[in-house]
Amino acid sequence: MLNSNGFGANYRYGLHLNAADKRLFEVDFAYMKDPKEQKTYVNIMNSTARYVEGKKNLAFDFRIGYGKQHEITRKHDVGGVAIRYFYNFGPSIVLLKPVYYNVGEASDRIIVPFPKPQKYDPNWQGQNIYVISRASFFKGFDDMGIDPGVFGKFGFNFEFGKHDRNIQALEAGLIGEAFIKKVEIMDFTDSSGLQPKTAKNRQLFLTLFVSIRFGKIVDPYEVKKKRERSKEISY
After folding, report:
1. CA-CA distance, 104 to 91, in Å (whole number)?
2. Strand, coil or helix: what is 230?
3. For the whole model, what pTM was predicted?
4. Are strands 118-119 and 2-3 parallel, antiparallel or unpaired?
5. What span, in angstroms and rounded, lies between the C-alpha atoms of 225 and 218?
6. Nearest by Cα to 55 from 149, 145, 189, 202
7. Which end of the chain is more exposed for a tag (fewer CB within 10 A), N or C?
8. CATH number given to 2-43+50-99+138-234
9. Which residues contact 232 (CB under 8 A, 6 or more apart)?
10. Distance, CA of 148 to CA of 7 (rounded, Å)
11. Which of helix, strand or coil describes residue 142?
12. pLDDT along the chain (235 residues), means of 10
């Protein structure tokens, strides 16, 4: 799943209510980016390392959805396309993992590295501290923050699979989310840490998404028959 503010994956389980409608249960996982993110090169020691200046946290968004899907047009033959719309809603939670950097202090034209990685601090430039490289991705998981919220999703499903039991589809739509507090992905202060920038972290999100979906349709009656047959054989 590609989002206008990141990327992710989704698992969906559906139950037929009738010939055209399904009840949906979904789980989403997405990595969220801020539109103001811009990678820059480390400007010391001829380094080729890149990092996002002002990146305070990595944001991981988890959603649990409940909703419905309705079939508008059915796939009448092989090579046809079935068109459906769907919606779901539910709770969401963002996990915020602090970003750590390997930094050093300038002394007599030499950068002396700190012994341990440090959290991003907008005051580094004023303190003559420079980023050398980004620390390990796994650094900071023990210091994660939580930001709960709610979401709603609406989209269209274009199913083009050649086999009735195998699902192949393209989806597109919108996701709206609201959180209890602002999702602090970036640190929007200037290098001195005194004057706030015009950009701000957001509490409300409206996201476009496009996804490729694949799966399988399971007939519960056939599953039941297979279980009964396996029991008979085992006896």
Report:
1. 42
2. helix
3. 0.80
4. unpaired
5. 13
6. 189
7. C
8. 2.40.160
9. none
10. 19
11. helix
12. 93 91 96 85 63 86 96 81 94 94 77 82 74 84 92 94 80 96 83 55 93 85 70 61
